[in-house]
Amino acid sequence: PEVVLNQEPVEVTNDNVRQYWVLKNKSFSFNLPLKRAPKKLEEGHVTLRFLIDSNGNTFDPEIIESVPAGIWDYAGVKAMSKQDFIPAKSNTLGVPVYFTQTIFFK
């Protein structure tokens, strides 16, 4: 899909993202190709900043933090791309946002 912006995106945090967008599904799963899976399965997290456009699609992931460094980056971006967002009741205009989210791997 192409990015759809009906206005300039707003920066949001975990505290206020639900005023704009909510996850369509409470959970999701995906498989990592063996060559992309971490060599040793240690816990970690990836903090990503990404765009949720006016249609609820995600774009432009930027890795802000990765612990351990680089191990879970691919999985973090893959997880972000699997999230489906729908507008919150208060977001009747489909205001696009930049959202920073931390995804934990255990």
Write a brief caption for the model.
This protein is mainly beta and 106 residues long. It contains one helix and six strands; from the N terminus they run E-E-E-E-H-E-E. The chain is 8% helix and 35% strand.
Walkthrough of the structure:
The strands form two sheets. A four-stranded mixed beta sheet has the order 1-6-3-4, with helices on one face. The protein has one helix at 73-81, and strands at 10-12, 21-23, 44-52, 58-67, 85-87, 97-105. The protein is elongated and about 45 Å long. Strand 3 (44-52) and strand 4 form a beta hairpin. By secondary structure, the chain is mainly beta.
Number of strands: 6
How far is the first residue's CA from the last residue's CA?
A: 31 Å
Alpha carbon gyration radius? 14 Å
Number of helices: 1
Largest sheet: 4 strands, mixed
Our estimate of the beta-strand percent is 25-35%
Helix content: under 10%
Strand order of the largest sheet: 1-6-3-4
**SSE string, helices as H and strands as E:** EEEEHEE
- Could you name the ranges where pLDDT drops below 50 across 5 or more consecutive residues? none
Structural class based on helices, strands and sheet pairing: mainly beta
Shape: elongated
Q: pLDDT average, as an integer?
A: 89
